[in-house]
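Before relying on records like the one below, remember that each one covers exactly one chain. Contacts with other chains, cofactors or solvent are not represented anywhere in the record.
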Amino acid sequence: MRNDMVKTLSAFLLLFFVSVNCSAANVGDRAPDISLPHLTGESQLDLKQLKGKVVYLDFWASWCGSCRVSLPLLNELRSDLSKKGFEVVGVNVDVKPKDGIAFLEKFPVSFPVLSDPKGKTPELYRLKGMPTSYLIDKKGIIRHIHVGFKKGDMAKIEKQVLALLSEK
């Protein structure tokens, strides 16, 4: 009897934690906090440090063809809107950080790029494809999720960012 109760409780707790994690990165949820080192190895960045800004959290990898298109366009958007409170944060998920560094030598960006070679953050956010991005409002709430990227997506993303920047 006691063994059955332990199994039932264990199953319940497992289901509870899985269900909590599965909903951790949906539109309307608070963005899970991350704290990762910069890709080049210098200091860490904590997502909480950016509260009060609109943040485009972009997960990418050097082998991602769409990322070759998205990163320069996101860099341009950030340059245009950073003074209004917009920030782009890239999270490179290459197992070998040197692959991400080599990619950025070809496609340089001025926004912070973090490194997660162990893939804990993509697991936390439950990525559905590459690239996947989360548009987070000033209060830390996920407002839009973008899976994949085409050049034509940029107008929609800019419109969403501008709408969030205008919110009080």
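The chain has one domain: 27-166.
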